[in-house]
């Protein structure tokens, strides 16, 4: 690696998330696929990312667009073939990119052969691979948990047996019971299957949910209205994470265990990193939901510094993904999104970039007759515009409408335009890679005027770097960072000693 350090790639690197339905379509069915993805991987390498995380493309009835897996070891025909997945891995490796696949260990599709068998009879050996319970005496579900996406119980009655099964998400996504020893063993087999094909690690879907309390206690009143997936972080989770960690550690090379730790309690997320025996990275969900506000971000970074232990794990920062409105849309302006990119790519920890944020994409406006996701997440899943011309490089009308200004936002329109968001991301990624303090340094918060977040990053044997970010739309006269300008929201250096301009971020060698 060009970093010149012995640190693992996931400590110093940047991961780029691809939602394959929306990335690139090769066969003209309007849905992105693996061949389309492979054909556009050079975009990711050019951008300067270190790894791709690919959302699920496994066999699936697509009730949750692939997060309902019916065969963990095969590719859905919509996306291609197993040979295409192999091509994806080898092409990415040729380009110097690591490959992280999505592992969905908490649930399967209701069409998975395991669940079909489980449902066939209470005496079937697969029955206890899932969570079945008798109704309460009045016939109602076994506890008060709510499912995600619809305000419905997290339980569906199976009329044949008179028992309910648990699903934290859709009824088509029954939860596996990790208390049954065959479940971890099978999932380990899935991981080994993909690692043998060359995969460098896994992003583990709702990993906090796998260690369910067998008692399945009711949610307390204050949580009872929320989806249970937000607070079902049972006592067995850490032990199961340690088990998964041993599986990745058992394979040669540096394989990553990245957890989708979707809880709002940072201490809990940090806990899942263990003592170097848990997740390598956990998504920092509190910061994903923080507003664009200097004081709020200062508090998030301070708490992260305090809570994430220096023992071999760190946070994965995420501003956008396929589940929430894009930060360009949430924060409201292009200028803020440019400053946010500086924050994301210079803060301590591992940044993850969601395909399209480097184009400054906003969420698509999805008219009611084109809504497809039961969870209301279509807007952030709009297809990537590659080219200016109508169709934007998609051979047929895609499954969702394009985001606003797709022509001007296309890769073709932005490439080589120094003022574009795309070139801004490229410059930032290049700078980060070339600057040890930015990709492996410690972080210390600096005093700064209201509205400004400032921090200093230092690494042994390297020049310290300061980052100053103005979260406001006004110039801040009291913020006049000094030092050699390395980059930031401007295309070229500002006047030395000048105050931070509206929405401006500066990176300086200090
Ligand atoms: C989190 C995934 O990111 C989301 O897209 C999915 O719907 C749920 N987990 C259920 O798998
Ligand atoms: Mg296709």
Which kinds of small molecule does this entry bind, naming each only once?
Answer: 1-deoxynojirimycin, magnesium ion
Distance between the termini: 26 Å
Looking at the chains present, what oligomeric state does this protein adopt?
A: single chain
**Classification by helices and strands:** alpha/beta
Number of strands: 18
Nearest-integer average pLDDT: 96
> Nearest-angstrom radius of gyration?
23 Å
* CATH structural class of the largest domain: Alpha Beta
Determine the fraction of residues in helical runs and give it as a percent range: 25-40%
**Number of separate helices:** 16
Could you tell me the CATH topology label of the largest domain.
TIM Barrel
CATH superfamily of the largest domain: Glycosidases
Uncertain residue ranges: none
CATH architecture of the largest domain: Alpha-Beta Barrel
What fraction of the residues are assigned to beta strands by DSSP? 15-25%
Shape summary: globular
Summarize the biggest pleated sheet: 8 strands, parallel, barrel
Task: Report strand order across the widest sheet.
Answer: 1-2-5-9-10-11-12-13
Question: Can you describe this structure?
Answer:
The mean pLDDT is 96. This protein has an eight-stranded parallel barrel with strand order 1-2-5-9-10-11-12-13, surrounded by four helices. Helix 6 packs parallel to helix 7. Strand 14 and strand 15 form a beta hairpin. The two termini are 26 Å apart. It has three domains: 351 residues, Glycosidases (TIM Barrel, Alpha-Beta Barrel), CATH 3.20.20; 54 residues, Alpha-Beta Complex (Oligo-1,6-glucosidase, domain 2), CATH 3.90.400; 69 residues, Sandwich (Immunoglobulin-like), CATH 2.60.40.1180. With 510 residues, it is an alpha/beta fold. Bound molecules: 1-deoxynojirimycin and magnesium ion. The site of 1-deoxynojirimycin has 9 residues, from loops. Magnesium ion (MG) binds next to loops.
């Amino acid at each position: 690696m060009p970093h010149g350090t012995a640190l693992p790639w996931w400590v110093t690197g940047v991961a780029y998330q691809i939602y394959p339905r929306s990335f690139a379509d090769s066969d003209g069915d309007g849905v992105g696929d693996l061949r389309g993805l492979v054909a556009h991987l050079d975009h990711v390498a050019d951008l300067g990312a270190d790894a791709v995380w690919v959302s699920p493309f496994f066999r699936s009835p697509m009730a949750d667009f692939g997060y309902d897996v019916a065969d963990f070891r095969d590719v859905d025909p919509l996306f291609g073939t197993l040979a295409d997945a192999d091509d994806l891995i080898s092409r990415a490796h040729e380009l110097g990119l690591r490959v992280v696949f999505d592992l969905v260990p908490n649930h399967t599709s209701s069409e998975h052969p395991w669940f079909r068998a489980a449902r066939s009879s209470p005496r079937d050996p697969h029955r206890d691979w899932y969570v079945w319970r008798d109704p309460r005496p009045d016939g109602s579900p076994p506890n008060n948990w709510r499912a995600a996406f619809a305000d419905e119980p997290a339980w569906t009655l199976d009329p044949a047996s008179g028992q309910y099964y648990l699903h934290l998400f859709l009824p088509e996504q029954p939860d596996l019971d990790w208390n049954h020893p065959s479940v971890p063993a099978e999932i380990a087999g899935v991981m080994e299957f993909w690692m043998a094909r060359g995969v460098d690690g896994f992003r583990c879907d709702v990993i906090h949910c796998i260690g369910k309390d067998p008692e399945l206690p009711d949610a307390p009143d204050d949580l009872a209205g929320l989806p249970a997936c937000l607070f079902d972080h049972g006592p067995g989770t850490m032990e199961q994470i340690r088990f998964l960690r041993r599986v990745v550690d058992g394979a040669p090379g540096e394989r990553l265990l990245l957890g989708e730790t979707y809880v709002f309690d940072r201490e809990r997320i940090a806990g899942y990193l263990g003592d170097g025996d848990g997740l390598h990275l956990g998504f920092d969900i509190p910061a994903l939901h923080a507003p664009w506000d200097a004081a709020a971000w200062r508090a998030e970074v301070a708490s992260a510094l305090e809570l994430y232990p220096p023992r071999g794990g760190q946070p994965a920062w995420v501003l956008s993904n396929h589940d929430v409105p894009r930060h360009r849309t949430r924060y409201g302006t292009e200028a803020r999104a440019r400053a946010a990119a500086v924050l994301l790519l210079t803060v301590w920890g591992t940044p993850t970039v969601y395909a399209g944020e480097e184009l400054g994409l906003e969420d698509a406006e999805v008219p009611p007759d084109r809504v497809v996701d039961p969870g209301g997440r279509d807007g952030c899943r709009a297809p990537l515009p590659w080219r200016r011309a109508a169709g934007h490089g998609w051979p047929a009308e895609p499954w969702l409408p394009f985001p606003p200004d797709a022509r001007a936002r296309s890769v073709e329109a932005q490439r080589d335009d120094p003022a574009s968001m795309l070139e801004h991301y490229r410059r930032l990624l290049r700078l980060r890679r070339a600057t040890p303090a930015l990709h492996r340094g410690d972080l210390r918060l600096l005093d700064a005027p209201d509205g400004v977040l400032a921090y200093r990053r230092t690494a042994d044997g390297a020049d310290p770097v300061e980052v100053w970010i103005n979260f406001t739309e006004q110039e801040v006269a009291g913020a006049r960072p000094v030092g050699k300008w390395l980059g930031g929201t401007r295309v070229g250096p500002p006047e030395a000693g000048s105050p931070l301009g509206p929405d401006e971020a500066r990176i300086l060698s200090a």
